[in-house]
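ARCHIVE CARD
Drawer: 12
Card no.: 0347
Subject: one protein chain, sequence and derived structure
Cross-reference: see card 0346
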Amino acid sequence: MSRKSTQILKAALSALHYAGADRLLKPMTQGAGIVFMLHHVRPEPPEPFEPNRILKVTPAFLESVVREVQAQGIEPVSLDEAARRLRDGDTARPFACFTLDDGYRDNLVHAYPVFKRHNVPFTVYVPANFPGGGDHLWWLALEQAIRQSSAIVIEIEGELRRFDVSTLAGKEAAWRTLYWWLRRLPEYETRAIVAELARQAGHDSAKLAADLLMTWDDVRELARDPLVTIGAHSCNHLALAKLSEVEARAEIEDSIRRIEVETGKPCRHFSYPYGDAASAGEREFRLAREAGVTTATTTRKGLVEARHKNAMTALPRLSLNGDFQDMRHVRVLMSGLPFALMNAAKRVLSRAA
């Protein structure tokens, strides 16, 4: 999302908050529960150039959200309990689940103490081949390569392109072009390209991952706490919809087995890498069901509704976004009103079309 789009959305959320629309309409729009999505939980402020800042919130903000959930009478529960409530139609009291993707070490160091202090269950989705590092975190390696460079020369679709990244504006423009181009490529090709850009910028993308990701010992430390659920997030964090059915099935099933072997506990929950409509659709939802998981989460925006009892492998989530660390915005999003308005607009546009 561009800075301008972010500013517009913030203004809209603030307007709904100050108008009291979220409080007035919440009984009709809040749904059965919320599955919050996080990635990094770290205390440091964002860098001037940090396009992945949307994936990072502070421990203080996370604690504010936990307190707000409890203050609103929403019950923090595990994914197992959320699934049971949906299956049984036990949705009189709304629930909240906290989930964190990718298995970053800061989940153990900074997020875990917050949840432990408030006795709040949470889930960490771990890609089975991530603990210990590797050239996996290409989006972070790309950011670092651009940050440390003054120029980038790269061939894109047969054309040699030069990006002047000596200024903040130049870095942000290069990021928008390169990131979305790389997202369209086969991912092992993406990772090879970014690893080379990182090398040219003077840093090691594999070391970056090793520094940021949990080890299996870290994962097992978390798994020993009954508050913590370890879910699977594929083996290699690939967009499953880009893969053949055989490959996608293996990414799901092999990751579940590896989590179970490493933690000694059943793995009943899965999260789709990237998780948008282009990365996970009906085929992937079916494959997750066939793998036997209880739930699988997407990054599609929304709250959980009673109807999701029939779509337990296609659950939406509410992102706790680093650009929206303002409790006014969170309260409006927790009400479900913005999602109800978006869905209503889609229906109107669909009828008009």
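Annotation on reverse: The first helix runs from residue 3 to 19. DSSP finds 14 helices and twelve strands in the chain.
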